[in-house]
Amino acid sequence: MSVALQLGIIVGYLVIALAVGLIAYRLTDRTAEDFYLASRTLGTVVLLFTTFATLLSAFTFFAGPNIAYAQGPEWILVMGLMDGIIFAVLWYVVGYKQWLLGQRYGYVTLGEMLGDRFGSRWLRGLVAVVSLLWLFPYVMLQQVGAGTALEALTDGAVPYAAGAGLITAFMILYVVVAGMRGIAWTDTLQGTFMLVTTWVALLWVLAAVGGPGAATEALASNPDTSQFLSLGSGYYTPQWMLSTAIVIGFGVAMFPQVNQRFFAAGSETVLKRSFVLWPILCVLLFVPSFMLGAWAAGLEVAVPEGGNVLPAVLAEFTPTWFAALVIAGAMAAMMSSSDSMLLSGSSYFTRDLYRPFVERDLSDRREDLLARGGVVVFASAAFVASLQRPATLFELGDAAFSGFAQLALPVVLALYWRTITRAGITAGVLVSQLFYISSLFVAVVPGSYLGWSAGLVGMGLGLVVTVVVSLVTSPAAAERRAIYFDQPGAD
Amino acid sequence: MRRNELGLWVAVGVVLAGLAIPWFLWGSAIVVAGLPIWLWWHVGWMGAVSVVFWVFTQRAWGIGIERDGGGDASSSPDRAEPTRETRPEGESP
């Protein structure tokens, strides 16, 4: 019964999503800008929820509660600082400036924006290659996750390859048809659904166990978890909490599907409202979701090997249909993140690699077609890779946030520091990427420095290299600094 | 004047980020109304952050980014939709 129900809910979601996509399709212009950015017309609610759903969905439902279950609820603080504050500040510092520049010059990708300023298609290509290097394995991880979840859900009736394949095929169809507008609309439904079901789940579980006081008391009296309530632990050290929050917070802002949303706001008012509401939205989701994970540890909810805590808690304390609804919603959420990544990945490929290096005078109409083709290629390649389950790609996918974070400081410098040169930013990007990748794969480069993570150290290194190289080189003839500094707000 | 104001907002941002985790409650396990006290602090702090962000959007939006940015300038109606300019010739796109 529950399997049929879960499948029914997933299929129901797919049908609703497709309907939304078809409505969005009817409203689209056939241009690349509309396909990628919904022609920069997103309103507050849609922008807020599409960013929210893209960023947080699968992680909030699965990995986050698992961490709280294993290590205690301090994870809420780390996520609150990382997403609620650091990312919000970057939303202004990076996002607002990017939005102004995008409005003025029509940029669609980060690489395009930097390439134009520094007069270099090679820099543009470099940013795209670095981004795709981290994005590709991350998309693959989502497919692996969805395929595995579907296999577990149906007790093997739908084998892994078929499940992952089905979901990939649906995502391709959906993204190709609906583009950014359709994705943003379904994300809005998704985000609302996530928020409501998480709170209902929390209230349901608390009603069953006798309220938050009783649940917390169970944590305190259980010898395994009595340490959970005091702030900090051997796992949650100040260095680790700060490293994680800073690196992931900056990484998020450089993730293509998030960064690209900086360009998509309809107006300045939309940006302002989203910025103000963002910290509240984060807290509203993190507290119930991660407290459920932490409380589950005190209540001795058993989690199967390799499984997730949230489904286990729901199975124990709520009716089957409700648990099925939440899990199906979480799987759908996983897909709603992946579809945005496919779209962004395709745009980085067509705009920053294909167009500048293969076919320079690409018409709008043709770029639109190519962009949709790019989605098919990107998704299929990630799916084929996911069948092989290569260890290297898994490691890259897990490290993607830190990998993207390496881009952040050179980009911030490019936006605000007049003295930066093409050589400076190129060196900063290359050195920090090489350092961080080495820390993953080369034994002599450690992953931790006095408790501070290699991701954070790499960011510092990128900053220093960018500054020093910029100071000792002079701008190339093709650089056009005026684009960033003399225009915004001048009219 | 604008420079001081920018410095002030940078300081505000650092404080907002710096106290999202209540370091002064490190090791505390006091429980209030069913939740650890440090979690209540965090929830209240995030609410306060949202209020400060709102004040920022009203008073200083554009600071550090637009040349004449922030404050009064934001009342200019044209600014919300700057016209798209054709790029000067150069390499790319």
TrEMBL record, chain A:
Q: Does the keyword Transmembrane helix apply?
A: yes
Gene3D superfamilies named among the record's database cross-references: Sodium/glucose cotransporter
Residue ranges annotated as transmembrane are 6-25, 37-63, 75-94, 122-140, 160-180, 192-215, 235-255, 275-297, 309-333, 369-387, 399-417, 424-444, 450-472
What is the predominant subcellular site recorded for this chain? Answer: membrane
Q: Which GO terms of the cellular component aspect does the record hold?
A: plasma membrane
Molecular functions (GO terms) = symporter activity
Q: Into which family does the record put it? A: Belongs to the sodium:solute symporter (SSF) (TC 2.A.21) family.
Do you know which PANTHER family this protein is assigned to?
A: SODIUM/PROLINE SYMPORTER-RELATED, SODIUM_PROLINE SYMPORTER
Can you name this protein?
Sodium:solute symporter family protein
- Species of origin: Natrinema salsiterrestre
Automatic annotation (TrEMBL), chain B:
Under Pfam families, the record lists: DUF3311
Instruction: Region Disordered: list its residue ranges.
Output: 67-93
Q: Where is the composition biased (Basic and acidic residues)?
A: 78-93
Alphabetically sorted, this entry's keywords are: Membrane, Transmembrane, Transmembrane helix
What is the top-level taxon of the source organism?
Answer: Archaea
Residue ranges of the TM segments: 7-26, 38-57
Q: What is this protein called?
A: DUF3311 domain-containing protein
Please tell me the species this chain comes from: Natrinema salsiterrestre
What taxonomic lineage is listed for the species of origin? Archaea, Methanobacteriati, Methanobacteriota, Stenosarchaea group, Halobacteria
